[in-house]
Amino acid sequence: MNGQEVQRVLLDGFQAQPMPAGQVSSYWRQYAGSLDRTGFESPYACGTARRMLSALERVSYRQVTRQLAGFPRAWATALDVFADMTRRDPAAPPGAGPNFNVLKAACVASVLLDHWDRHAWPATIAIIGDGYGMLGALLSRLAPKTRVYAIDLPAGLVAQASSYCAANPEETSWSVDPSQSGRFTFVRADQIESVTTSIDCAVNVASMQEMDRAGIARYFTLLRERSHGGSHFYCVNRVEKTLPDGAVIRFDQFPWRADDTVFIDGPCPFYTHYLAARPRFLRPFDGSHWHRLAHLVPIVPGERA
Ligand SMILES: C[S@@+](CC[C@H](N)C(=O)[O-])C[C@H]1O[C@@H](n2cnc3c(N)ncnc32)[C@H](O)[C@@H]1O
Predict the structure, then answer these.
(1) pLDDT in tens, 160-196
(2) Would you call the peptide bond into 238 cis, given omega within 30 degrees of 0 as the criterion?
């Protein structure tokens, strides 16, 4: 499929079934009304004041980004991708600048680049819950030969297809069927078992905290079943979050195992605060974020994660 075709197929799929049964937590049931592209936080800072605020916000993170060896490369590429997105994304407001979501994607990408440079570059990346699609658009440009699986609810896939297409207009190899080859493959949350290749690198940023425990466990099982010696999972999520139905989701209670190899583990330094236009200017995010980069011990299908 070409980019236009895959976007049409995903939009039709979203309209036919916006929320696959059993995959949607109480969080997403509550916000179902805004489950379209506009419901995701975009990478765009609109207007001079917001652009300036975002620029100052980046300065406030400079101590952190200096520590990330891959950041200059990731940030330069993020700006290129952002420029392409603002040119080609019909939803991009004129004159927009990069906001915190672009910085966050560049930080995530630099953590991964540092790991890949030290270990091995991935042939397959699975991004679970990529929202507007900034991270996948960036990783696909940093690793131009790597196969990318975008895994999400139907609304997310529509958003991600649009962003990935804007960032990769020449690419012709798009698919919604993991059994076919394709550089970009969009997989609905209820169809993750159809990804049968191994997954070298998996990423989840700020989205397991919006799933229920069963949904999180399903992803860990899939990742362990598709894990091999060099596979790694980068997980950036809230330490704790209470879903609208009262369920408490805790990072440390995700189904990690004591024998997983942990490369990075701690409070996430690039996801601590944002800048507001009024005092108090520097504000902490609602809840602290943890990040862990780990090799998940593989299991064979059917074994308990
Ligand atoms: C708050 S957004 C985070 C977006 C992006 N990762 C970021 O950091 O900006 C949460 C994402 O999780 C996705 N999501 C929610 N439930 C999901 C599920 N069961 N499987 C996969 N993705 C899911 C949403 O559609 C959305 O893309």
Answers:
(1) 999 999 999 998 899 999 999 899 999 999 999 999 9
(2) no
| Amino acid letter for position 8 | R
Domain positions in the chain are 3-19+43-295
Whether omega before 280 lies within 30 degrees of 0, making that bond cis, reads yes
Instruction: For ligand 1, atom 14, name the residue with the nearest CA.
Output: 129
Q: Whose CA is nearest to atom 24 of ligand 1?
A: 129
What's phi and psi for 96, nearest 5 deg? -70, 150
Q: How many CB atoms are closer than 10 A to CB 47? A: 12
Atom of ligand 1 nearest to the CA of 189: 20
Q: What is the pTM of this model?
A: 0.95
Is there a contact between 149 and 127 (Cβ–Cβ < 8 Å)?
A: yes
Q: Name the residue at shortest CA distance from atom 21 of ligand 1.
A: 152
| Second-level CATH architecture of 3-19+43-295 | 3-Layer(aba) Sandwich (3.40)
